[in-house]
Design goal:
heterodimer, A: four-stranded antiparallel sheet, 0% helix
């Protein structure tokens, strides 16, 4: 029943490791996003895909690589994790590109030790 | 880029009180949304309101696009209204929503 679901909810790992976060939406939306929320609660977009095509790629380190196997899935792979990567990562989706209502997943809290 | 400022940054109220949260933005927008992040971290979309007024139960929102601000009203506050409220805007032709820094609302019983 969950509209936008992401796994895992919590991720605790050591510096230097590689990890992935998965996201799936069952709303039939064309556009999906990754947002990062820092310790001060500030939300910033990282990536956006429309029908599997990358349309937004903010100034994010190359260690972050999104992948969209189909329009219902958008995964985030992070290589060589650093302490500063600790944050909450949210997946989101909207019906299409442009001025559309945004729906968020429940977030993945990443802690890098 | 567009600037989004929310006020107040923090608001502490007793249950039953009314509150008004404000969002100012620096450019013309074609998309404005209000979100509530509850104490468990979930982000819930409250309103999609690029202009005009909408109501949903005890919550209502008004956006005056020509004057570049939006207001979120919460009446008869309940403890479950606690959390952080975010405003997010998108300018015409842009492809991303820009979030404000949020208003942290605490409703005490």
């Amino acid at each position: 029943d969950t509209a936008v679901s992401q796994t895992p909810k919590y991720l605790v790992t050591q510096m230097g490791n590689d990890k992935s976060i998965k996201c799936e939406q069952n709303l039939g939306h064309d556009t999906m996003y990754w947002y990062k929320q820092d310790s001060k609660k500030f939300l910033k977009i990282m990536f956006s895909y429309n029908n599997k095509e990358l349309i937004i790629n903010e100034t994010v380190p190359n260690r972050f690589s999104p992948k969209s196997p189909d329009k219902a899935h958008l995964n985030l792979h992070i290589n060589s994790l650093e302490l500063g990567d600790s944050a909450v990562y949210f997946c989101a989706s909207s019906l299409r590109q442009g001025a559309e209502k945004l729906f968020f997943g429940s977030g993945t809290q990443l802690s890098v030790l | 880029g567009i600037q989004v400022e929310q006020s107040p940054p923090d608001l502490i109220l007793q249950e039953g009180a009314n509150s008004t949260l404000r969002c100012n933005f620096s450019d013309s927008v074609n998309n404005l949304q209000w979100f509530h992040q509850n104490p468990w971290g979930q982000l819930i979309n409250l309103f999609y309101i690029p202009s005009g007024t909408k109501q949903n139960g005890r919550l209502s929102a008004t956006t005056v696009a020509t004057e570049r601000y939006s207001l979120l009203y919460i009446s008869s506050s309940q403890t479950t209204d606690s959390g952080v409220y975010f405003c997010a805007v998108q300018i015409q032709g842009a492809q991303k929503l820009v979030f404000g820094q949020g208003t942290r609302l605490t409703i005490n019983p």
